[in-house]
Design goal:
- Keywords: Iron, Lyase, Metal-binding.
- InterPro entries: CN_Hdrase_a/SCN_Hdrase_g_sf, CN_Hdrtase_a/SCN_Hdrlase_g, CN_Hdrtase_asu/SCN_Hdrlase_gsu, Nitrile_hydratase_asu.
- The protein is mainly alpha-helical and 224 residues long.
- It folds into two domains: 31 residues, no CATH class; 145 residues, Nitrile hydratase alpha /Thiocyanate hydrolase gamma (Nitrile Hydratase, Chain A, Alpha-Beta Complex).
- 41% of the residues lie in helices and 10% in strands.
- The chain has eleven helices and four strands; from the N terminus they run H-H-H-H-H-E-E-H-H-H-H-E-E-H-H.
- The strands form two sheets. Strands 1-4 form a two-stranded parallel ribbon. Strands 2-3 form a two-stranded parallel sheet.
- Helix 3 packs across helix 4, helix 4 crosses helix 5 and helix 8 packs across helix 9.
- The relative contact order is 0.19.
Length: 224
């Protein structure tokens, strides 16, 4: 059975600039692109090196904060309860704050229910815990299909859920952003938070992946 939950009425306006339907770049994006072009033209920057740095931040450095939050929730039942009750306070208590994470909601995966996060209007995303949003998260195809066919989208990401698992789709807004707590893999009892965090990927905190299994080589994230 597939269920959807939309976290906002679509009449509201987002308070920040985004690319809408990929048609226009915001003024800030245009200025950044112009500056990057100038730096490359002057020989001060290497496009390949810039792309590599962005990729590292998107898939490795950025999501480490969120991985630490999830690992603590797995290891500490009291913190997990706090995170589910008031994710904003729990996350801020770990020192992860920022304008894109002022109101956070944590949703927890279970054998009966899997959570998937999208922003149907643009690309609202919890930067303080996940870093930069991947390009596919902002793409119109993901934004529409995650709502209309979440099971199909998950299959394309390599996630095959049992037919009986309900899928809930959470729609991020400028006011509210979501963090998925993936299910803790079996065989990790007694692990330290640092070791547990290594099993948590960016995509698993969006809901387009599961937590890594113990002993499995780190899997590449979906392309940014």
């Amino acid at each position: 059975m597939t269920g959807h939950h939309h976290g906002h009425a679509h009449e509201h306006e987002h308070e920040h600039e985004h690319e809408h339907e990929g048609s226009e770049l915001s003024g800030m994006a245009l200025r950044v692109r112009a500056l990057e072009s100038l730096l490359v033209e002057k020989g001060y920057a290497d496009p390949a090196a810039l792309d590599a740095l962005i990729e590292i931040y998107e898939t490795r450095i950025g999501p480490r904060n969120g991985a630490r939050v999830v690992a603590r929730a797995w290891a500490d039942p009291a913190f997990r309860d706090h995170l589910r009750r008031d994710a904003t306070a729990a996350i801020h208590g770990m020192g992860f704050t920022g304008r894109q994470g002022e109101h956070m909601v944590a949703v927890e995966n279970t054998p009966e229910e899997h959570n998937l996060v999208v922003c149907t209007l643009c690309s609202c995303y919890p930067w303080p815990v996940l870093g930069l949003p991947p390009a596919w998260y902002k793409a119109p195809a993901y934004r529409s299909r995650a709502v209309m066919d979440p099971r199909g989208v998950l299959a394309e990401f390599g996630v095959a859920l049992p037919e009986g698992t309900r899928i809930r789709v959470w729609d991020s807004t400028a006011e509210t952003r979501y963090l998925v707590i993936p299910m803790r893999p079996a065989g990790t009892e007694g692990w330290s938070e640092e070791r547990l965090a290594a099993l948590v990927s960016r995509d698993s905190m969006i809901g387009t992946a599961l937590a890594r299994q113990p002993g499995a080589a780190p899997m590449a994230e979906a392309p940014a």
